[in-house]
């Protein structure tokens, strides 16, 4: 992370006068509370693309997703598991395993985070130790056609290390060469197919392509939780041609935590939702509101709620087209009693929760038994605005140590927890970005739906199980947000639509970033905050 003092100023289209903003060192703390439980909010769905990358520019891809409509519950997703298959079912069998090995690579093709590879290992090890021949498939990135930089080749050494065998790599994912490699695969061997997205038929879920993939194997194991929200040929299509089609251990574990823990949590059950935009999280908020005892909201999305209350939000991030939606949610909260928030002065922009909110949130979490967290509390990519996110990460780590079930739902929250060095103590860190959001919204995942039904299978939990059902606590859902102090300056010297931003992975470098409305008004020059 860059030293903010040395960072260049950000520039943007002026939204407000700069003088008032720069003259102030702080703004009043603000917060609002709903006094009573919120009930009766239905599911709605929203798509988002939580990202694993810290690049500021790429985060903005997640914006602008729209809401859809009610969906069926996901708790019914009891699927046949790879653990149900006996050694006799597996020995000598060719097993098509779809994993999500979509890991970040640096410019030199080095893996910068191998979490997803490590997460795929238990299923593969189980298969090879039972004498299966594993045909491993994944996508990497979003290539348009064959694109060398998206080859899965860089993953082979790490996979081989983790599995303790030499993984063979194919240059394609279908065709005669691949068939030859499959034919020569020994029992207990692993063949890694090339990126399935090199074929456009993959994302189009074309049956002929799915059939070709399926023809390589005898049965199918889907362990690609991170891609389970995509109905693609290698996740959904192949199930039409391979029986049995079962869930891998990772997929099971993710479902167990993200569906199981949320639908039948140990209570009090708290949900913390943050992130940049209401549009990407409204489905999650509505869904969790139905289930949780305490709801803590932070991050940029809160300003749309503020604005909907008629409060001044300065230059903070607001989604004008979501004001009505925010109003309807707030109406329900207001009916129960909401303490109004203070206004944010013109020219100022809320970028993190402040110390009072950290305390309020921490106090509220103190007695919880289950906590799910989705979305950072502030612009944590910058150290100055990472304080609230770090404090929440530390609080969750502390609670984990006391046996509280702590679940971190994908994307930026996971990055924040990892940055803070507390990932390993959490009960569950999801490997899915978009997939985990969709689950939390109550959506069904096509990659899971397509698998064979089974009687529910108990999943061995790594950490605190969540089977017991203490009586519902008297804890109340709480909206809480306080805007931290920040310094801001708005410059008029940038053209419309382009702002200067900076890439935190390349310290000191500036680059043009488009559509970066929330970078408006940031100015670290000379700031001591
Ligand atoms: N007050 C704020 N103003 C503007 N942006 C914010 C603010 N607070 C947080 N953010 C930004 O929100 C982004 C994350 O929001 P997003 O909705 O993409 O979450 P996410 O990727 O879905 O997170 P997760 O995957 O953990 O749910 C981060 O880049 C962070 O800088
Ligand atoms: O990184 C992810 O969320 C998954 O690998 C899915 O990737 P996608 O959003 O490109 O389908």
From TrEMBL:
GO cellular component: cytosol
Keywords, ordered alphabetically: ATP-binding, Cytoplasm, Glycolysis, Kinase, Magnesium, Nucleotide-binding, Transferase
Enzyme class: transferase
Named cofactor requirement(s): Mg(2+)
GO terms for biological process, alphabetical: gluconeogenesis; glycolytic process
CDD domains with a match to the protein in the record: Phosphoglycerate_kinase (cd00318)
One family name in Pfam for this protein: PGK
Keyword Cell wall biogenesis/degradation in record: no
Subunit structure: Monomer.
InterPro entries referenced in this protein's UniProt entry, alphabetically: Phosphoglycerate_kinase (IPR001576), Phosphoglycerate_kinase_CS (IPR015911), Phosphoglycerate_kinase_N (IPR015824), Phosphoglycerate_kinase_sf (IPR036043)
Protein name stated in the entry: Phosphoglycerate kinase
Family: Belongs to the phosphoglycerate kinase family.
Any GO MF annotation of the entry: phosphoglycerate kinase activity
UniProt pathway annotation: Carbohydrate degradation; glycolysis; pyruvate from D-glyceraldehyde 3-phosphate: step 2/5; Carbohydrate biosynthesis; Calvin cycle
Higher taxonomy: Eukaryota, Viridiplantae, Streptophyta, Embryophyta, Tracheophyta
EC numbers: 2.7.2.3
Catalytic activity, reaction form: (2R)-3-phosphoglycerate + ATP = (2R)-3-phospho-glyceroyl phosphate + ADP
């Amino acid at each position: 992370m860059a030293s903010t003092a040395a960072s260049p100023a950000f520039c943007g289209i002026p939204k407000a006068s700069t003088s008032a903003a720069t003259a102030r060192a702080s703004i009043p703390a603000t917060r609002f509370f709903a006094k009573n439980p919120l009930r009766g909010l239905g599911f709605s769905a929203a798509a988002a693309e939580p990202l694993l990358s810290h690049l500021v520019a790429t985060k903005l891809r997640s914006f602008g997703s729209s809401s859809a409509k009610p969906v069926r519950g996901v708790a019914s997703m009891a699927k046949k598991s790879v653990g149900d298959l006996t050694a006799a079912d597996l020995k000598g069998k060719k097993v098509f395993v779809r994993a999500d090995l979509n890991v970040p690579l640096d410019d030199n093709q080095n893996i910068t985070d191998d979490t997803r590879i490590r997460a795929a290992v238990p299923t593969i090890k189980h298969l090879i130790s039972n004498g299966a021949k594993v045909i491993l498939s994944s996508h990497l990135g979003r290539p348009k056609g064959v694109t060398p930089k998206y080859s899965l080749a860089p993953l082979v050494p790490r996979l081989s290390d983790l599995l303790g065998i030499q993984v063979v790599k194919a240059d394609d994912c279908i065709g005669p060469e691949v068939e030859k490699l499959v034919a020569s695969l020994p029992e207990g061997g692993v063949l890694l197919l090339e990126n399935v997205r090199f074929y456009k038929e993959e994302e189009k879920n074309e049956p002929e392509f799915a059939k070709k993939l399926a023809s390589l194997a005898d049965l199918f194991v889907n362990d690609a939780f991170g891609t389970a929200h995509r109905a693609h040929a290698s996740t959904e299509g192949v199930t039409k041609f391979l029986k049995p089609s079962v869930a891998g251990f990772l997929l099971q574990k993710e479902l167990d935590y993200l569906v199981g823990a949320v639908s039948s949590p140990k209570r009090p059950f708290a949900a913390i939702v943050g992130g940049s935009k209401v549009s990407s999280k409204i489905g999650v908020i509505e869904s969790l509101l139905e289930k949780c005892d305490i709801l803590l909201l932070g991050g940029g999305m809160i300003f749309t709620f503020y604005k909907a209350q008629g409060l001044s939000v300065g230059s903070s991030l607001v989604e004008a087209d979501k004001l009505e939606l925010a109003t309807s949610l707030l109406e329900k909260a207001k009916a129960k009693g909401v303490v109004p928030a203070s206004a944010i002065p013109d020219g100022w922009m809320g970028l993190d929760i402040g110390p009072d909110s950290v305390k309020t949130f921490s106090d509220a979490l103190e007695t919880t038994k289950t906590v799910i967290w989705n979305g950072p509390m502030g612009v944590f990519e910058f150290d100055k605005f990472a304080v609230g996110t770090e404090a929440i990460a530390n609080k969750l780590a502390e609670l984990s140590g006391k046996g509280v079930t702590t679940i971190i739902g994908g994307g930026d929250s996971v990055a924040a927890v990892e940055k803070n060095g507390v990932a390993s103590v959490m009960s569950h860190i999801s490997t899915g970005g978009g997939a985990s959001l969709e689950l939390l919204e109550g959506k069904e995942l096509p990659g899971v739906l397509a698998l064979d039904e089974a009687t529910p299978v108990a999943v061995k939990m790594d950490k605190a199980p969540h089977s017991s059902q203490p009586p519902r606590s008297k804890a109340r859902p709480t909206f809480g947000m306080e805007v931290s102090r920040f310094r801001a300056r708005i410059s008029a010297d940038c053209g419309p639509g382009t702002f200067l931003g900076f890439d935190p992975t390349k310290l000191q470098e500036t680059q043009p970033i488009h559509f970066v409305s929330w970078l408006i008004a940031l100015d670290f020059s000379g700031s001591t905050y």
